[in-house]
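request received
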Amino acid sequence: KAGVTQTPRYLIKTRGQQVTLSCSPISGHRSVSWYQQTPGQGLQFLFEYFSETQRNKGNFPGRFSGRQFSNSRSEMNVSTLELGDSALYLCASQAPSTDTQYFGPGTRLTVL
Amino acid sequence: GENVEQHPSTLSVQEGDSAVIKCTYSDSASNYFPWYKQELGKGPQLIIDIRSNVGEKKDQRIAVTLNKTAKHFSLHITETQPEDSAVYFCAASYNYGQNFVFGPGTRLSVLP
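response:
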C-alpha cells in the first residue's frame, strides 16, 4: 500500500505571497491532519479534515486554511506569508475508527 | 487542553546500552499514546503505540510502559544501534485520535 504523499517537497516563497500544499492520504483513509513543525515550537496541530469537513482546528491565524476533496486528498493554503511561516508542513492520514496517524515526508517551506 | 511533556530533550548513549525517554500528560481522557521516530529529512514514523487498557507493550528491542494513575508513559530501547539515532516524539490523544498532542521531542544519539 502506498504511503502518504505530499507535494511539493520543497518550496521557496517571499513574504506576502500565498502557497498551496497538497497531501494524498493512504488509500481508504478519510481523515487528514496537518501539522506545522519548527525547531522552536515542535509539532503543532493545524487542522483535521474528515469526509470533506473540517473536524478540528488548532490555534493558528485565519491565514492558514485547508480543504479536502471527495477522494480524501487535502490541500492547505497559507496566504500573506510571513517569515515565521518557514517550517516543515506535515500531513498525516488516519483510517476510520482507528487511532493511528501515518505521516507523509512533509513539505519544507522557506519564506524569504 | 492536553499538555504533553517529554524528557530528556537530548540523550546520548553508547551502542549496546539502553535508552529511556519519559513523557507525562495532563488530560485523564487521553487513551492512546503513540511514539514516533523522525530521521533527518523525513516525516515521523510510528514505531510503537499503547492504549490505556494496556500497561506494557513490546516489539523486539522497543517497549512502552504506561502508568495511568501517574499519567506518564515511557519508551525503552534496548541494545541500541547507531541507526536508532533520531528524534523521538511521544503523543497523547483521545476520541480516535482526533486530538493529538505531541511532546517536544528527544534527540537520541547512539555513539559507536
